[in-house]
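@channel sequence for tomorrow's demo:
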Amino acid sequence: MTTTTTSTTPLTTTKDLWAALRGRRSYYALAKQSPVPDARIQEIIAEAVKHTPSAFNSQSTRVVLLLGGEHDKLWDITTDVLRGIVPEDQFAATQQRMDGFKGAYGTVLFFEDQQVVASLQEQFALYQDRFPVWAQHTSAMHQLVVWMGLESEGLGASLQHYNPLIDDLVRTRWNLPTTWNLVAQMPFGSPVAEPGEKSFQPIEERFRVYS
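structure tokens (generated this afternoon):
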């Protein structure tokens, strides 16, 4: 197990907020390399987990960073699960995707702690049906902040969702609490190819101002 590294001074990055947001894309061609040391990656994720907002300050998001052989193991697990589901004559494309993710440098796993969600449902019964939704919002904010943090250091990433197929195996492998609900997986590494073109809908159709 790797010890979490935290900073005693504010993080600085080579990209500003908006450059990191614009640069954040889904990179699928990734090398098992990183332009920054593991301690820096840990530092970025720890800062994101600490400072990203959450509904009712629930702090329900849980994050696991997998590096080295542990990262490889995740994608071996996922491959084995999918092999039992995807028809054999269609598995070549799936294997190619899995090899691509395994070929990355590491993976960030995002969870939401259902024990925290249940506690809030009990405390605030009027909103009990909303807390699972707000937990997903909380997770999404953490995903974006981590993604931008990795982008700011020259790392490419993509967001994957092989849950709930791999949930139980992931909990068992890394001895995680049963209340941790897997939400997303983010493989990352040094980009070796540019991402595909991104199209944008007219901003006038998506943004209105009234004054």
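heads up for whoever presents: The first helix runs from residue 17 to 23.
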